[in-house]
Amino acid sequence: MDINLAQINDLFKQANELVLTTHIHPDGDALGSLLALNGYLSLQGKKVTMLLDDDIPSTYRFLPGCDRIRRPSGRQTKPDLLVVLDASDVERIGGVYQEVKAPVLNIDHHVSNTRFADYLYLDDTAAATGEILCDLFVHVEAALSLDMASCLYTAIATDCGFFRYANTSAKTMRYGASLLEAGVKPNLISEQLETKPLSSIKTLTEVLKTLELHQENKIALITVTPEIAKDNDDLTEGLINYPRNIEGVELAIMLKAASPDTIRVSLRSRSIDVSRLALSFGGGGHARAAGCTIHGSLAAAKEKILSAAARMMVGKC
Ligand code: AMP
Ligand code: MN
Ligand code: MN
Question: In whole angstroms, what is the distance from residue 175 CA to residue 254 CA?
């Protein structure tokens, strides 16, 4: 059932023990939102556990509180509430769903949300789940610690391309300003996010060599082969922006071999609704940024996504 901010607060008030989680392959919004909500609920005296069924990419390990995020242990727990942040379907939280037996509250901003939760707060106009949490914290008049503000800033800024993408609204920017007023130093956060090990630059040069153009240069595709992905798994975030930024490209695709027969697909577009393309492969996301996983070889995945994309683009570009 859909609920409003006041009802989210009621659920929090009624719960003493909460588990918070977010999507696998976590990004800045996933981790920033998880940590900010953990900060708020902990200050309310709640017993809060953060579970994530994945590794934390090194880029985000600077986020305060990150070391308290645990992997599911396989042992069933029964807290009062499971809060799922920034995840549009239940597969996205991996093993947490089997392990935690509790009513589920999903706070999300993906247009592709599958409405799997008992309680859903979905705002697909929000640039980030972090922006929804800002709405919530304004509603409940929460005092933000600097750590919470840094996490919220990271959540919002990373999902809207540092206030550049089409999902950036005046409200998104106002929240950015409020978070700076709470003490966030945007340069320090950007420095943490942008400083990369030398190996990531080497990865970039390898990945750029794979660039292919299709459909009269309207589709640009890059591939992270198993050899490149090996040892560099968390260094490929942001690479999709290179094909995305090529003049005339309507659709950018990045194929990444998580294993030889599990291909993660990232999609970015200027005009077509890539959330629909991703949904047709069991994934999801937003109109301009979406993703899915295709099982099969790299060559087969490429063939499938390119032909589906070509069908979608007919008459649209
Ligand atoms: P990415 O390309 O991984 O940065 O993801 C772009 C957007 O698509 C993000 O909002 C993701 O949450 C979403 N997304 C990526 N992969 C999937 C998936 N397999 N299922 C649902 N949503 C996804
Ligand atoms: Mn996310
Ligand atoms: Mn998000």
Answer: 31
